[in-house]
Design goal:
Elements: H1 23-32, H2 36-54, E1 60-61, E2 74-78, H3 83-92, H4 118-126, E3 127-130, H5 138-152
Length: about 150
């Protein structure tokens, strides 16, 4: 199954792995590997800038920094706002965002739990990932922060 254990996006029914590394991927990795630490530092700087720019927004829970965090994603929780409405408003303003895990693990057929997990359920409805990469410019990030302030300060 090419979808790594999922016939539909985010609806895993079996445990899947993607552990292949062909020659082309290995060659690309060999070129990129020396740059990883620098890219991690850049993403950490972008994460700090998001934190500084969004810290005063009510109803927003920011991710907690940790020294070993490489900031592959910058995912916040919108506890006082309708996440889907915020995402739509960002999209209308030309800002990309993503919900990487719309279904909590205990609701996936592969892991389905019998007991309710209300914190997980709530988090799945609140999380939103903002643009994040080592190449994210300060100007582009400032635009994301400004749009979020416009949307959430209403």
């Amino acid at each position: 199954m090419r979808n790594h254990g999922s016939s539909r996006t985010y609806q895993h029914t079996e445990l899947g792995y993607n552990s292949r590394l062909d020659s082309l991927q290995a060659a690309i990795l060999r070129v990129k590997l020396p740059h990883v630490e620098g890219w991690n530092r850049c993403r950490a700087e972008r994460a700090r800038a998001y934190h500084d720019g969004l810290a005063d927004l009510p109803g927003v829970v920011l991710p907690l920094p940790h020294p070993s965090h490489v900031w592959h994603q910058y995912t916040l929780r919108l506890t006082g706002h309708d996440r889907d409405a915020v995402q739509q408003a960002l999209q209308s303003a030309g800002v990309a965002s993503k919900v990487y895990y719309p279904t909590p693990l205990h609701r996936l057929p592969l892991y389905e739990a019998r007991a309710p997990l209300p914190v997980s359920e709530r988090a799945a409805q609140q999380v939103l990932s903002l643009p994040m990469s080592a190449q994210l410019s300060q100007d582009a990030q400032d635009e994301v922060v400004a749009r979020l302030h416009e949307i959430l300060d209403r």
